[in-house]
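Figure 3 (text version): structure tokens given as input.
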């Protein structure tokens, strides 16, 4: 759904200040309520959006989420659903799903206040009043059984250890006809491969203007990619192959559909149904 793609070049980061055309937001010296490994999440939001603008796979994943949601709930304009985006970051997936389901209650669950600032501006720019930002980590959130129609988790599961318990919580939280859309980085990040991927796309005329605009940020983006890869190697983040990822989802009780690798083969994607809920699998 290309209409959900936001204009990313209005946001920049200079000397520790997240800036937009309509104002500034000072970064504090505090730490985000996420594992203190690898990437500096307090300053990563603008970099994430720049990389999203350079990555066709990113917007393909948005499109596939919307496709799955419309298939499950064809009357999207009137559907009064409950939707939760876990580790929602700067709000790109949340914005897209809220646009398709204007009558839904959409929760943007993200522990980092700087990410939430960027998300809040997107929701305001889109005029979306059905999105609620909850600044909380996964384990502090009130996960009630069979309370959600759609749960989204894009590039966050690898940090939510133990993953088996996290996935069981998500499955129980889904309503019987609901679904879980998950994308997760599983393989060690290779900063140089990402660099060549973006350059090759630019030479083909794909996102060339955005690539040129991003060049001043490349030192920061490459450093973040290297830190992420280092954190994976150290074992602080979960890594997995595609088959292992699918098996982990199935072991947690999901029925898995459309399991595939994405993001240059570094990540895995799946659409999952809650399967048979026995009610006796609480930890």
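Below: residues designed for each position.
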């Amino acid at each position: 759904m290309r209409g959900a793609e936001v204009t990313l070049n209005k946001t920049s980061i200079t000397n520790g200040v997240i800036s937009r055309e309509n104002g500034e937001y000072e970064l504090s010296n505090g730490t985000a309520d996420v594992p203190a490994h690898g990437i500096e999440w307090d300053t990563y939001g603008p970099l994430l959006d720049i990389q999203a603008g350079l990555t066709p796979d990113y917007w393909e994943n948005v499109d596939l989420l919307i496709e799955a949601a419309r298939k499950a709930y064809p009357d999207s304009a009137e559907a009064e659903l409950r939707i939760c985006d876990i580790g929602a970051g700067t709000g790109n997936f949340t914005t897209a799903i809220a646009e398709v389901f204007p009558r839904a209650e959409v929760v943007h669950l993200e522990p980092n206040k700087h990410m939430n600032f960027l998300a809040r501006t997107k929701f305001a720019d889109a005029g979306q009043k059905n999105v609620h930002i909850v600044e909380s980590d996964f384990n502090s959130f009130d996960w009630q059984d069979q309370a959600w129609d759609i749960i989204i988790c894009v590039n966050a599961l690898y940090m939510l250890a133990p993953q088996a318990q996290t996935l069981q919580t998500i499955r129980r939280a889904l309503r019987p006809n609901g679904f879980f859309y998950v994308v997760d980085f599983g393989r060690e990040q290779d900063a140089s491969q990402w660099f060549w991927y973006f350059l090759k796309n630019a030479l083909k005329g794909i996102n060339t203007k955005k690539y040129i605009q991003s060049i001043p940020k490349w030192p920061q983006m490459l450093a973040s990619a290297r830190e992420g890869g280092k954190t994976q190697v150290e074992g602080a983040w979960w890594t997995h192959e595609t088959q292992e990822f699918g098996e982990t989802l199935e072991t947690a009780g999901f029925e898995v559909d459309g399991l595939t690798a994405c993001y240059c083969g570094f990540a895995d994607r799946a659409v999952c149904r809650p399967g048979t809920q026995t009610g006796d699998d609480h930890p």
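The CA atoms of residues 191 and 223 lie 8 Å apart.
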